[in-house]
Amino acid sequence: MTTPFAGARWALVVALAATALPAAAQQVPPPSYASFSERLPCVHRIGRCFDATIGGKPVEVIADKAEFEKLKALLQTLNSNVRDVHWIVREPVLGTLALDVETRANTLGLPLVGDEKEEPDVTVYALDGQDLESESELVAQQSVRVNGQPVVTQQETLTQDFLPPGRYAFAIKYLGRKNWDRKWVFLTVAK
Questions:
Q1: What gap in Å lies between CA 122 and CA 142, rounded to an integer?
Q2: Residue 90 DSSP one-character state
Q3: Hey, which of 96, 117, 129, 139 has its CA 20 to 30 A from 28?
Q4: pTM for the whole structure
Q5: What's the CA gap between 37 and 5, in Å, rounded?
Q6: Cβ contacts of residue 99 below 8 Å, gap of 6+?
Q7: Exposed/middle/buried for 161, CB within 10 Å: 0-12, 13-18, 19+?
Q8: What torsion do the CA atoms of 24, 30, 32, 38 make, to the nearest 10 degrees?
């Protein structure tokens, strides 16, 4: 499903590759406190295998476990559907640019997830009660099948091209030619 917003498919939530890595890449990449498999480095789906920008600003790893735990506790009070946010955009993003998400496989992920096959799936979680315009639609989930057919689910799709000020979590799913990975990202949209 393509929307008028450049670079990503947007959903608003209301409410393995078995290739071995070269020896040089086998140290635990950031965040070092999170689970890591040398044999299957993208299997935990925490975003190590691709890089991203939101509104032109870099998505950075939360390298410090104490900062991760503090944010995790805060997010549990704001939205229980948001989990394992290992990534952050440190500077506020302009609301008119906040839906501009760009992704690319990084050195770790390129041999495992491959080049980008299609634009990323981005799910937006408004954490401060922001009212976002959306419409309900039915979407086939290709990754979940019953009797060989994709399961159809209902989702809310954004119908606006900006985000109002406040805190958000994005779940960015990178869809590569070989596999996929996902980053949960915390960001603030500027006032």
A1: 16
A2: -
A3: 117
A4: 0.79
A5: 35
A6: 5, 8, 10, 122, 158, 161, 162, 163
A7: middle
A8: -40
